[in-house]
Structures are given as structure tokens and as C-alpha cells.
Write a structure and sequence with these properties.
This protein is α/β, with parallel strands linked by helices. It contains eleven helices and ten strands. Residues about 15-25 and about 120-125 have low confidence and may be disordered. The structure holds zinc ion. Zinc ion binds near residues 63, 134, 222, 274 and 275.
Amino acid sequence: MNPRLLLQVAALLTPVLLASGGAHAADKLKVVASFSILADMVHQVGGDRVEIATLVGPNADAHVYQPTPADARTVAGAKVLIVNGLGFEGWMARLQKSSGFKGRAIVATKGIKSLQMEDEHGGKGHGHAETDPHAWQSLANAKIYVGNVRDGLIAADPAGRSAYEANAAKYLSRIDQLDAEAKAKIAALPPDRRRVITSHEAFGYFAATYKLEFIAPEGVSTESEASAKDVAKIIRQIKAQKIPAVFMENIADRKLLDQIVRETGAKIGGTLYSDALSDQAGPAPTYLDMFRHNIQTLTAALSS
Ligand code: ZN
């Protein structure tokens, strides 16, 4: 490249660098979040003091994720690594070790009272209890996530304490507000319209909080497929109990639910966001949008 062209290129690039935050970008706290829901919570609490990389992005399934060499480099370069825990990211321990990560690891579910799910699935039939990792599907738990994220960010970046505390306080009050809305909406559903079918058992915490019953052909992880026996059992149950609606999930294949709909005549109630956010253009680009969308989708399908 000749020197004049080089100057022109430099002149073109300079405003871009300034616009992206200039010198401040380098000072940001580098945080890696394991999946999209957690990344949004970190964004809400960290604000512009943090730079967040997300390993499992929107509409992707963290249960079956396979880390890449690029992920190992991302983790290695971070000061803070935030994970859900409760066995959700089965691949994380190995990734963390192989990356040589030396920063601060935060488990967002620390202090949460976890639910056990009886594993009737997976084909092995040993019926052992499994810890349900989907704790974010309760807004009361989300407040514990936010507290852990806030405290972890403060520990890694003490100079940001007042910003993290203020952001977290604001976010926590929005969570409380949505929780009150959710409880009011679901309380209005008739008792015989509170059973729904989803793809995998991602709504245990939601069910316990809002008194709905979720029935799923797949277990707490999407790793093992539902057996023909599981599916037949659910089809009998839908018919016998007149379960009104079947809900798709953004991370799951809809083939199985289509079969259930064909054989039972249950209606499709819409798509629930279980383990991942939508992209920016979708209905669930943030955790609170996701939760509001799920409440609206459920109550709309079950009240009519
Ligand atoms: Zn799941």
C-alpha cells in the first residue's frame, strides 16, 4: 500500500475508534457470561463499565453446547467469568481449565434453593433425582442472580461499586414490578386451565412460583431425546386431562410437539423462551422481555 493511501485509511478509521469509546474501551471490565440470559443480567448491572462476551448466544441451547477454541481464548482474556451453575453448563469446567482462566468465577445461582426433578426420562429408567438448573424461570430467583452478579462485579472492580449498586437497585425494582404483574395475570386463570405441554422440563421454578403445571416429553436437559413411550404417555395424558395447549420453545425442535398436536388436537399456544433470549428483533431480547413474553403467551392461550 502506498503511503498516501495508508493515510487515507487511517483518516477513515480514526472517527470509528473515537465513536466506540476511544481510550475508555480498554478500561472496561472484561466479563464472559455463559449464556444469553445471564449476559443480559450482567449488562443491566454492569452498564457501560463492563464489556461482555457471551458463549451461548440467543436462541441457542446451552445444554448441548460444544465450546470452540475461540471460546477458550475469550475466557482466557476475561477478568470475570459468570456461569449459571446447578449443572447447566456441563462443558464449563473443562473449558475453564483448558483456557487457563485466572480471573474471578461467579456462580449466579449461589444461595438459590434448587429444585430436584425426578428423572423419568432418558431411556435408562433409573429414576434418579436431578437438580433442575433453570432457576432463572422465577423472578424471585432472578433477584438472587442479580445480587450475585453485583457482588461479583464489585469484587472484581471495586471502583465501580456505586455504579453497580445503583444499576442493581434499579433493576431489582423492575423485577419486583414484573413479578407483581405476572402473579396478577396468572391468578386470573381458571383452575382447570393451568396445565400445559412444553418440549423439555425447563419450567419447574416457574411452575412452583405461579402454580401452573408443565408437562414435558424431554427431561431437565435436552441432551437425551424423548422415547416413544414418553410421547405416548403424554398423548394419553393430554386426551384424558383435556390439556388445552402445547407450547414450543425457542431452543427446541418442534417436530415432537407437532406430532403431539396432530394426535391430540391440542392447540399450539405459541413459543416460550426457556433457556435463551431471542435476537434483538425478536420478542425476548432481554431477560425481562422474555419473562413478560412468556407470561403473555401463556395467559393468552390459556384464558381463551
Ligand atoms: Zn433447559
